[in-house]
Amino acid sequence: MTAYKDLMAFQRETEALSGVAGMLGWDQETMMPDGAADQRAEEHGAMANMLHARRIDPRIGDWLATADAPDDVAAANLRQIKRSYERTMKVPATLATELAKTTSLAHRTWAKSRAEEDVASFLPILQKVVDLRREEAAAVAGDTDPYDALLDDYEPGATGAELGAMFDALRPRLVSLRAAILDQPAPVVLTGTFDEAGQLALSEKLAAAFGYDLTHGRIDKALHPFSSGSGLDVRITTRTEERDPFNCFYSTIHEVGHACYEQGIDRKHLLTPLGAGVSMGVHESQSRIYENQLGRSEAFTSWLYGQMRDVFSDFGVADERAFYGCVNHVSDGFIRTEADEVQYNLHVLLRFDLERALIAGDLAVGDLEAAWNDRFLADFGYAVDKPSNGVLQDVHWSEGLFGYFPTYTLGNVYAGCLNAAMRKAVPTVDADLAQGDTSAATAWLRENVQQFGGLYQPTDLITRATGAAPTEAPLLDYLEEKFRGIYNL
Amino acid sequence: MTAYKDLMAFQRETEALSGVAGMLGWDQETMMPDGAADQRAEEHGAMANMLHARRIDPRIGDWLATADAPDDVAAANLRQIKRSYERTMKVPATLATELAKTTSLAHRTWAKSRAEEDVASFLPILQKVVDLRREEAAAVAGDTDPYDALLDDYEPGATGAELGAMFDALRPRLVSLRAAILDQPAPVVLTGTFDEAGQLALSEKLAAAFGYDLTHGRIDKALHPFSSGSGLDVRITTRTEERDPFNCFYSTIHEVGHACYEQGIDRKHLLTPLGAGVSMGVHESQSRIYENQLGRSEAFTSWLYGQMRDVFSDFGVADERAFYGCVNHVSDGFIRTEADEVQYNLHVLLRFDLERALIAGDLAVGDLEAAWNDRFLADFGYAVDKPSNGVLQDVHWSEGLFGYFPTYTLGNVYAGCLNAAMRKAVPTVDADLAQGDTSAATAWLRENVQQFGGLYQPTDLITRATGAAPTEAPLLDYLEEKFRGIYNL
């Protein structure tokens, strides 16, 4: 038992230090004075170097070689540590340094290229990022599919082939649902302005309604909403737009979903490798089910309508039914992060297919923009007008995040599965939501998903929670039923 | 040059990591949700362990052995690193761990004993803290005065004997000035209430008036005002009391003094051992000269009077002269942190003499309360009524901070020297202050003190700035002249 105890004591300090690095990131986006950026960059770099040195500490290998797992929690801890250690050890230090340097430069280049609508100026550094990530994938995974090696970092156990099959099944029904919706008359849209204080007050009420625990968290404003931290300190941010309070409200609910996952993990996993969400996909399943299947449901929006009238008086939407359509309004647009439930996954699928081809070497970086624009036209029916609305819109590739995009849609797929199972188990959900009460729904999610942290691998976790292996069918059924209802299809 | 470069690169990362640990402390006092305390304690512990491991890294010794100093900046960097390394290496790891554990327990015990007015329950753990600090002093300094070894950690180069002589010269004149003042009729005191928003708005205006740079800092509320950080990110906190806006204003100006010292250091010292204030005493000299010699001057308070009337309308003080008396009101009180300029140092001198005797072994821990009460009665003329107003009022000893108290009065002594020199060099100071303009005074301080960071040792720094070795005389002259004027003595 000594090896296991020593390893876990070392790991516990690493988890704590890693939490500190996360806090530093939170501070940067919320509190840090502008003039501190250069110093903060050095602080981040020093923390990253220190954490990397801990992650390749040879004692980890020694401990792993002799550690026994007396129970399933210990076994899962060892599995997580081993997985991370072996992956880290396989990447040569020079490559890790080169990747850090290159992505830092690529990120700055991307921001400039996007501002100048100049794809060509971004391609050379993107090529280098792709090459380095392929090199990393080869170091990690040897001869297996390099894309899978990258994907595995965000979604343990997932493969490009399986996700590809699932996504290929999603795409035609989403394209056709989208086309049918956009043939119909548009529902009312929100007009007028909504003061910031009112948005923030209602946003905080929504966070509380979804069970976010402010004694272990806080809400601040930031340019981009995010959730950060785990265990006893899980913070979220939100933002306001005068003409679009839904941006604030649904960003908040989305981040509350992420935060409640972290807050809902069994305390016995605190500061262990199991003490955080198990994968990006499962994380996104929680944020999306809170935001969409619960937060954008007809039942919950009927309650929200009353709340908004209390705060903003009559804001020009006649009744709950019209408000439901308004919240779930589907319209043309180029930008993934602004997309509705129906179109969002089409944006992701486009990126998944392109990045998989890039990493496989089947698509040249020089052909990326054309491939993007062709695919966009095919799925959405109109042409990309400028790079910032197309291939340069997302930050991810500049940061080397290949294999990350599909976890967004996988999260929606998981949310579809969980929603179906939860509604079977908790038949009162809609009646509760109409009162602004999410407690039964979120308790089911905590009980069946959140509490386990990293104990079970993603597909095992969803299978245990729903009684069946995850498929895209529940998500598609849910979307088709919901939007046929709203648009009278 | 390789050894020096390698050492400085290593040190730079240590400075950055140390800054992160400081940020964590700032967050804890300002932003952290209450429920995160246990997790934060582990994060602090992990950062402290990691920083300690860096500070005893044997490579530092190797680098120091061969590093050359091509200029005075490099020489000063090496001196600071050597000093810190040698001191850290002399303290056995077991003793360091025992000290950390014991002071943590002593701090909790002190809080409970103070709340229960029960000195006896605090004495056993205080005895252990004293013993461990004596053991540390012996490890660090061998046969020299153990108090000097502790003092040197806060005020490099200072000795108990020298400070004792200086403080013995201060005491009788302060006791007699205090007695003379309290024989006179009291000036008007502030009555009524002052809303928090108004206090915070004026507090921010005061911070700006004293040159605090908000692009490299921020102001938040906290239970106790403090300043933290250095270089490009120096933050302060303040607090408000409805009936006492001076608490907010002068806390802010005090912390701005600390913060401007850090902000004023030459950028070339950023993230080096010279990139922070050189000692506690010099730090306190800046906070006190901002707060008192500038902020509580007749000229500045005449401007502040107008500002307060703008914000709070007529608040019951008839004119600038009455307001000046009101700001500088001297009255009886037991608590050091609430004391005015005249009495503050008497509180410090009491602690200095007692802690020096404790560490020398001339005073038993069991006799501490009686010694405190006797001395208080002698200097202040009335008896301590309960331990929380006496020996249990300060947190310092529970945390093992022996040698820290005298730096408060040393800071006032330095402030007295600097004030006299600055007023000679900048004859327009009072005319400027009467307009709320501190720029000439603070520019002189930046030029002559702040910019150098850790480049010169404390007494050298003050001597260079003022043209003479520091003595208590200018402080005494200043206090006697000022308060004779206010109280018509």
UniProtKB/TrEMBL annotation, chains A, B:
Binding site for Zn(2+): H254, H258, E284
PROSITE patterns, alphabetized: PEPTIDASE_M32
Active site: E255
Keyword presence, Transmembrane helix: no
GO MF annotations, alphabetized: metal ion binding; metallocarboxypeptidase activity
GO term, biological process aspect, one: proteolysis
Annotated catalysed reactions: Release of a C-terminal amino acid with broad specificity, except for -Pro
Cofactor: Zn(2+)
Pfam families: Peptidase_M32
Keyword Cell membrane: no
Record keywords, A-Z: Carboxypeptidase, Hydrolase, Metal-binding, Metalloprotease, Protease, Zinc
Cofactor note: Binds 1 zinc ion per subunit.
Coiled-coil ranges from the UniProt annotation: none
Alphabetical list of InterPro entries matching this protein: Peptidase_M32_Taq
EC number(s) reported in the record: 3.4.17.19
Family: Belongs to the peptidase M32 family.
PANTHER family: CARBOXYPEPTIDASE 1, METAL-DEPENDENT CARBOXYPEPTIDASE
Function summary: Broad specificity carboxypetidase that releases amino acids sequentially from the C-terminus, including neutral, aromatic, polar and basic residues.
Stated name of the protein: Metal-dependent carboxypeptidase
Organism: Yoonia ponticola
